[in-house]
Structure to design on (397 residues):
């Protein structure tokens, strides 16, 4: 826990010095150093994260070859890009932490690079990234976050240069690392979403169609997830798919009224407020991410009926974080504008919600274990201590 606390304090200090007090000296050095810290802490961990343990088990099996035996046309039972990364790591040597380091470099560099190019308050953005998504990107959704990294790299070309050609030249590896990454081929359509009088009608029709075929979509997407599973040829994919379909998060069970309200309050309301504030801005650059925030709202709405859409959240989180920094950077006519107060209140509320999500029970069936037990205490490859809580949660899921 200490190492996470120290990172939080350091990133908070940088946010205060460079984004609030507007100091400039050595900002690039500290920004780069922050990225290196997050890479090393993630890359040198030992059996931290439920998905990490599963990926580690697959890596240690003889199923993933070295580069000498690797073939892009080979049938390895999982995404060929992920197999290539594992094969590269095996060839380099050093164990699964080599995979972790490669993954951490790709993901953190992409996020930091994207934030630096689009956020008016980059240190605030990396602090929010650490609180909101760093854990998930680096410790859990390792394959998917690599796909997201390629997406961020490609999205920059779409935003900065309006180049579809560069977008597709940059984004195609996403589908090689994670089967679900193919959705990024459709994401350029998001930029055509506009706020006008027809938008509510379009949203209602869109939701109606998807909800009506919710069960079909849920099972289809889960099937695609398992086709690109982490299990190799050991037969775990079918078992994993069955557990997913029966789970509270990914399964076909509906949310309770309280669950729906929690989703609306914690996800939808903050996004709608962000859209409203950014849309009122006179600066057109503040409106770039509005279509992506609208898409995020749609995804959350779909998640109510089609639980697997929960996985789409990850693709919009970095854009949401950048949009939050844009919102707090808007200059209002009156210094004590109600919008400025509400914006900071909304951000603090979201931080509280995300913190709660780390401290809530893992699942109803695992009494006494919290989500943070996946990551606490921190263990490194230098000690290789055994984290009983994480191991227990992994076996129970």
């Amino acid at each position: 826990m200490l190492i996470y606390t120290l990172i939080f304090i350091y990133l908070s200090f940088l946010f205060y010095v460079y984004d609030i007090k507007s100091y400039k000296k050595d900002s690039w050095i500290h920004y780069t150093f922050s990225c290196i810290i997050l890479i090393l802490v993630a890359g040198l961990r030992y059996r931290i994260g439920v998905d990490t343990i599963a990926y580690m088990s697959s890596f240690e099996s003889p199923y993933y070859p070295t580069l000498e035996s690797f073939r892009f046309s080979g049938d390895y039972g999982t995404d060929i890009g992920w197999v290539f990364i594992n094969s590269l790591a095996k060839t380099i040597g050093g164990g699964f932490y080599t995979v972790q380091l490669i993954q951490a470099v790709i993901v953190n560099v992409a996020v930091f690079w994207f934030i630096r190019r689009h956020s008016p308050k980059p240190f605030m953005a990396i602090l929010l990234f650490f609180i909101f998504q760093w854990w998930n990107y680096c410790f859990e959704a390792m394959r998917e976050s690599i796909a997201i990294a390629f997406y961020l790299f490609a999205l920059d070309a779409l935003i900065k240069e309006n180049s579809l050609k560069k977008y597709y030249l940059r984004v195609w590896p996403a589908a090689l690392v994670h089967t679900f990454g193919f959705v990024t081929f459709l994401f350029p359509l998001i930029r055509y979403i506009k706020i006008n009088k027809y938008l509510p009608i379009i949203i209602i029709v869109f939701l109606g169609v998807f909800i009506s075929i919710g069960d079909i979509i849920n099972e289809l997407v889960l099937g695609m997830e398992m086709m690109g599973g982490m299990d190799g040829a050991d037969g775990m994919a079918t078992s994993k798919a069955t557990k997913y379909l029966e789970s509270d998060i990914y399964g076909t069970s509906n949310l309770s009224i309280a669950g729906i309200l929690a989703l609306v309050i914690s996800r939808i309301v903050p996004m709608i407020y962000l859209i409203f504030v950014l849309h009122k801005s006179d600066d057109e650059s503040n409106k770039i991410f509005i279509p992506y925030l609208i898409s995020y709202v749609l995804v959350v709405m779909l998640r109510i009926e089609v639980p697997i859409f929960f996985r789409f959240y990850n693709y919009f989180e970095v854009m949401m974080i950048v949009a939050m920094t844009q919102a707090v950077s808007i200059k209002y006519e009156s210094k004590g504008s109600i919008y400025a107060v509400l914006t900071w209140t909304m951000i603090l509320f979201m931080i509280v919600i995300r913190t709660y999500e780390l401290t809530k029970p893992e699942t109803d069936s695992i009494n006494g274990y919290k989500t943070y037990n996946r990551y606490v205490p921190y263990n490194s490859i230098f000690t290789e201590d055994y984290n009983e809580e994480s191991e227990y949660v992994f076996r129970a899921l």
